[in-house]
Amino acid sequence: MVRFYNVIELESQIKEISHQNIIKNDELIVPLLAIEIDITESKIYLVMPYFALGDLSGTIYNNFMKNQPFSERMVIQFLTKASLALSYLLSNNIVHRDVKSSNFLVTKHTHDELDCVLSDFGFATSVSNIQMVIDDSSCTMKYASPELIETEMSTFKGDVFSLGCTLFEMMSFDFNTMLWKVIEQDEIKAKLFIKERIHKNFSEYSTACVDLVLSMLEKDPNNRPDYESIIKIAKEHYC
Q1: Which is more confident, 135 or 175?
Q2: Rounded to the nearest 10 degrees, how much is the dihedral formed by the CA atoms of 168, 170, 174, 177?
Q3: Model pTM?
Q4: What pLDDT band is residue 93 in, cutting at 50, 70 and 90?
Q5: For residue 14, which of 23, 64, 67, 148 sits 20 to 30 Å off, Cα-Cα?
Q6: 3-state helix, strand, coil in the chain (%, to 5)
Q7: Rounded to the nearest 5°, which phi and psi values hold at 66?
Q8: pLDDT-derived band of residue 104, with 50, 70 and 90 as boundaries?
Q9: Residue 164's CATH number
Q10: Host domain of residue 195
Q11: 29 in a domain, yes or no?
């Protein structure tokens, strides 16, 4: 089920969304299996088609239960496609604001391939420019950025941090750590902690791959890469 809290402001923009790594707008807008409208709270609830493979959160947990780490190739596949989706939204002046593993629906999962589409625009908001600061108290705490916790303000770089948290979960099988809290306590120790957790789960992840994740988890949002930089690094090292 998808919640559109800003449906009035975003409706025209969302109808224009068309990207292979974002849930299709005929699955997002119309036709729908069911629509429930709550006029008093300006909310619309959309019931989406069934995705047999579930979401990425479930896929990560299933791999954990099988003691089957994701290959670096699959991690980079996911990162590239997720970054393309979020970059596309940003080019249309939309910030997702709720990037997490359960909001990526899995369309394909084999031993060496992982395809997902981004979903759930319940907290999405429109911005006038990509550097716009968002007054934002809406988030999923586990994936929240340090600046969001501290000031309830963020830019699209908050989504970059959340995507880094999703990659950490995928690579470490750590389902509980709130990285913003670890980073707030000691940023240097936090980087060592992240590396250790990832390599404890799968020692074959390259330094370049782990360093890319760490760059997305920088405490200062200005030091985090933008989506184009992430995609460029991924293509240079893995294509």
Answers
A1: 175
A2: 40
A3: 0.84
A4: confident
A5: 148
A6: 50, 15, 35
A7: -90, 0
A8: very high
A9: 1.10.510.10
A10: 51-238
A11: no
